[in-house]
Amino acid sequence: MSDHAEEFLIASENKAFDKEHRRIINFNIGKYDAAVTRGLSKLINLDNAKKKGHVIKWRVMENLDKYLPEFESNFQRRGGKVIWANDAEEANREILNIIQKAGAKTVVKSKSMVTEEIQLNEFLEANHIESLETDLGEYIVQLLGQRPYHIVTPAMHLSKEDIAKLFNEKFGTPIDATPEQLTAKARELLRDKYVQADVGITGANFLLADTGSIAITENEGNARLSISFPKIHIAVVGIEKIIPSIADLDLFWPMLSTHGTGQNLTVYNTILSGPRQANESDGPDEMYIVLLDNGRTNLLAQKDQRQGLYCIRCGACLNACPVYKNIGGHTYETTYSGPIGSIITPHLQGMEEFKHLSYASSLCGKCTEVCPVKIDIHKMLLLNRRDAVKHQVVTKKEEWAWAIWKKGMLSRKMMDFFKGKTKNVFLRTLFKKTWGHLREMPVVADKSFSKEWAERNSSES
Length: 461
Prior knowledge:
Elements: H1 3-16, H2 19-40, H3 46-62, H4 64-77, E1 81-85, H5 88-101, E2 106-109, H6 113-117, H7 120-126, E3 130-133, H8 136-144, H9 160-171, H10 179-196, E4 199-202, E5 206-208, E6 213-218, H11 222-228, E7 232-238, E8 242-243, H12 249-261, E9 268-272, E10 286-292, H13 296-300, H14 316-320, H15 324-327, H16 338-349, H17 351-354, H18 366-370, H19 377-390, H20 396-409, H21 412-417, H22 420-435, H23 449-460
Parallel strand pairs: 1-10, 2-3, 2-4, 4-7, 5-8, 7-10
Antiparallel strand pairs: 5-6, 6-9
């Protein structure tokens, strides 16, 4: 068992029995579920929209080598610069080069999971560059020295009392400050930072191939401020975020907002097509797009599992998952938690270290049901388990146990040959530890169903 797997089991147990954590997360997810249910009810043909989104993303992944160069060409035509990064190290190095070349010292960032993935904040801090998160949730977890808890709502695990206490300790606000007062304080602190910042860094929700643009979706306006004031704008985006046309936003923007927060459309939706043009008064003087691979082509090479790259990061599968709702986001120790994180992380960061996430599921299928682009998430979890065995990253004991189980289950004679007592010994010997110390092992009946059936029928006749 890898170190990550052992830590996951310990953290999962601690969180599962933390009643306060469960209260907060269930309350917050409950509010989102209610909003999403209302939002989805307004869509006329939801299943058809999901199928259309799935087909568009399928077409993109099958032709990624066509759409990415098309995006690059169109973006460069308007003065933008594209940087291709194979991994996190290369992406961070290129970003640092841009910052140092400009003599910049301060960076403002809008919410971006891909910059969390490459641990950009930590990297910049190590190189004496101040990097400040401007999304309220991201700002809160940055003050706490934590990583985002959820793809959409980074501070979902905190109550308003927790945040009031944090602001009281950091900024001297009243211990009983209301959410409105806390938001006003954060706004006051951040406004000057936008004006003073040398560089603005964002992610992007979509790359538009036909116009060479990026599309950013947000509810607070911090991304627009991070783009507008600094002279340099750097967008860090995974290569899978591309869609063929600006016209496809007609589908993806409503689907993203409705599944993420229940809104018809998020408050701020921005399309950027390069740096400020000669006839424009606003915008950065320089704009860079860092196109990040970082293991995505590993997943793309898996024909059965490349569906994982269809994800639009709405967070719906996290909110639906009974496992996530009990153990929370930090337990996964990955950038992308919950069901979607469990299927993509083993391919992005290594099957040997993260195969355990594909077992952290009840396989209820709710994640697949709620996905706006119809990713077969629960099927992908099973395929990851298959690959773990195929690539021999399971223990010999586990391998032999399942080999025996499979042989027995495929043979009625063998199943009937072993008595209930023998089967119970097998279970206690092979599965006691993996079954978990908080659960009792199931007890197999002394007689098989077929034996019981035969005896009852013979006695009746």
